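ok so for the tutorial part 2 we go from a plain amino acid sequence to predicted structure tokens. step 1 is just haveing the sequence, like this:
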Amino acid sequence: MYLYHFGFSELPFTLTPNTSFYCDLRVHNEALQVLITALKTGEGFIKVTGEVGTGKTLICRKLLNEIPDHFVTAYIPNPYLPPEELRHAVAAELGVPDHQNVDQHQLTRAIEKQLVALNKEGRSVVLIIDEAQALPNESLEALRLLSNLETETRKLLQLVMFGQPELDERLATRELRQLRQRVSFSYRLETLSEEELARYMHHRIQIAGFKGPMLFTPEVIWWIHKGSRGVPRLANVLSHKVLLLAYGAGRHEITVQDAKNAIADTEDAKMPKRHDATWFLAGIAAASAVGLIAAYTLGWIPV
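step 2 — the prediction. this is what the tokens look like for a chain of 303 residues:
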């Protein structure tokens, strides 16, 4: 493997959403700020959506790591559950005793009792659901009913949903209009610009222990950005493959041909087409500017 070939202490472009590799990109920082602000103000429903691979699970885990101490979190990573199993999952996360041995009415009362007890301790409870687009409609309705639990002054349970754009489409239906009206804060994750992707890639190799000169040239970054369409997960796949190709050839330099081969070998990547020389030269010029910005940001160019 190329780990030692390039001097990495760990693999820089794995697909696991590892928060130690978190890069303070504008779009991810904005999403976190929306979440923290909404939770601190006691809003009931908060929603973050984005295309596959844009970083929803990473932000979810970052939120779990950084949420203020007075919050009690219940995390449901796999929500494809009928209402009764979803209630049991929530009860288990909240530490409700003997929740497996009661009927659904008693279970709801036990969850409410636990929420009231936590509220009296000055704790706020937030239920965080990843991949929320997978929730059956009946389970979404069960969540709405749980969100009705409140005191005279505050909600007993706040809900954060992370999901793909299909979640927005489902909430737009008449059947789920009551839940849609409960969403007080929402954020849509965008893909990365070329400048952001350059900073993202250089950040990851530095976290992985790379100490050498600039590994990804502006031209290579340009091709990876075009091939991945700015989707971080796809960019990780392509970056991993170009490193493998260079390693296999015994080189320490990444070439544009490596990037082209990686794009061609990746099913969801998009190979850029050269319409004319002007288009191509404009792309190279933009990539060079990105490289200068990245080098300046990383301290490789003195002030």
